[in-house]
Amino acid sequence: MKPLAFLWIFLLSGNLWAQILHSKDAIVDKQARNAFRKAEKYIDSLQAKQDIPGISICVGNREKILWAQGFGYADLENGVGVTTQSRFRIGSVSKALTSLAMAKLYQQGKLDLDVSIQRYTSAFPEKKYPVTARQLATHTAGIRHYRGTDPINYPKRYAKVADGLMIFKDDSLLFKPGTAFNYSSYGYNLLSAVIEGASKTDFITYMKQEVFVPLGMKNTIADYSDSIVVNRVRFYEHADKKLVNAPMVDNSYKWAGGGLLSTPSDLVTMATKVLNGQFLDKETVDMLFTSQKLFDGKDTQYGMGWRMGTDPKGRRVIHHGGVVEGGRTFVLVYPDQGIFLAIAANMSGVSINLKEGEAIASYFLE
């Protein structure tokens, strides 16, 4: 073959390869646009159907954030729209973040998950049976959940984690630890006292320095009711079929169990880095995301700060939701497919659960 002929074929093949690459990119871009449009339409319908003032959503994969967008209003009275920087109450999704602090201390050898918690805190009295950090993190410790008589329905500031334990610390355990599952926000409040003892740092400071900053969670903080918090949304609920302001609350009694503010973008960033092994060792990550078993072998479908399950197509999912005054947040992870989703709303009583999360994720799994 003559040199010029070879060069011509080489150039043609190069142009053809460039066209193929461009064609693939175009297909991917088209699929992404279709996913965005379907997701936007779904969120619009969800918001209209439930009369939700504001929603924020973020979807990512193992490499990057694919889509983040705000819908509606962060503040109805002042006409302030939701942005990707708007901070929402995340409720019990706070437990997932608390579990990361516990896991980091465990990995560093500063926290033994299987010894009595009195090694780390004297703020909780000994009970009939010893309680461990592992049992607190997996809701198998026998610590009770909320009661209607608890002093949490009015704005009271608990200056220290130990002060918040006063609500339940003198109550008996519901069962022998390890023999049953009982979801308990108070159990996570107690876990934060253990974290303070193991780290020798107050809980919120430790979370900021050792969890939020390393994970790049720039918009995640405690929900201080008496402070000016930039980009914090207003909180709403429905009363007599009308949208009204949610009651004033102070979540200082439950920072670890449900008292943090965050954004869906921060939550997706967190989940991505954790699953990518950028925060904890693989063995520690596997521990967090392994469903725990009771002493009798029964599976709890709960790891440490995360729920385990499968979607209707049998794909493995990791998730957690948060219900709080004036807010609803949900985080969903498809670990095998590498899809991460978080959604938040600034209204009580919102129905955004696993079903809705899977519906939105399905557009990106396609």
What does this structure look like?
- The chain has 366 residues and is of the alpha+beta class.
- It has a single domain (37-365), classed as 3-Layer(aba) Sandwich (Beta-lactamase), CATH 3.40.710.
- The chain contains ten helices and twelve strands.
- The chain has helices at 3-50, 93-107, 133-137, 161-164, 185-199, 203-212, 255-258, 264-275, 282-288, 354-365; strands spanning 54-60, 65-75, 80-81, 88-89, 221-222, 236-239, 242-245, 260-262, 307-310, 316-324, 327-334, 339-345.
- The strands form three sheets. It has a seven-stranded antiparallel sheet, sandwiched between helices.
- Helix 1 runs antiparallel to helix 10 (354-365) and helix 2 crosses helix 6.
- One of its GO terms (biological process) is proteolysis.
- GO terms for molecular function: peptidase activity.
Query: What percent of residues are in strands?
Result: 15-25%
The CATH superfamily title: DD-peptidase/beta-lactamase superfamily
Strand order of the largest sheet: 3-2-1-12-11-10-9
Q: Which CATH architecture is right?
A: 3-Layer(aba) Sandwich
Overall number of structural domains = 1
CATH topology: Beta-lactamase
- N-to-C series of helices and strands: HEEEEHHHHHEEEHEHHEEEEH
Based on secondary structure, the structural category is: alpha+beta
Structural Rg? 23 Å
Catalogue the unreliable spans.
1-25
Q: CA-to-CA gap between the ends?
A: 46 Å
Q: What CATH first level would be assigned?
A: Alpha Beta
What form results from the Cα inertia axes? globular
Supply the number of helical segments. Answer: 10
Largest sheet: 7 strands, antiparallel
Tell me, rounded to a whole number, the average pLDDT.
Answer: 92
